[in-house]
Amino acid sequence: xxxxxxxxxxxxxxxxxxxxxxxxxxxxxxxxxxxxxxxxxxxxxxxxxxxxxxxxxxxxxxxxxxxxxxxxxxxxxxxxxxxxxxxxxxxxxxxxxxxxxxxxxxxxxxxxxxxxxxxxxxxxxxxxxxxxxxxxxxxxxxx
Length: 143
Prior knowledge:
single chain; 143 residues; alpha+beta; Metal Binding Protein, Guanine Nucleotide Exchange Factor, Chain A; six-stranded antiparallel sheet; 2 helices
């Protein structure tokens, strides 16, 4: 089931104008309108430094570098989030497919999709747009 990115259930909310001021055009298209960057073009698809990947919209820590793996798909891929409660899963029936969209549970920003073809121990592959995340070398996983 889909819901609008500005649903009042999200704790962090801004007007469309505020999102446009905060995010660059690519980040805005991805995070607020569920666009997808082209494979092998994003900043983090081949990035391997230790640290934390945070939501571009609200800075929520979402993925740790030690769960990142090379899925060969051209997007940053992780086998689990830092905390499953920080990721919202929604059914996505766009483009003639049925997939599971993942969003930041705090601000509703579109991150990418999750698939069941990842490595152990979860078997999941969180396929995330680089434009939806920021990287930091800090190990802080709290807001």
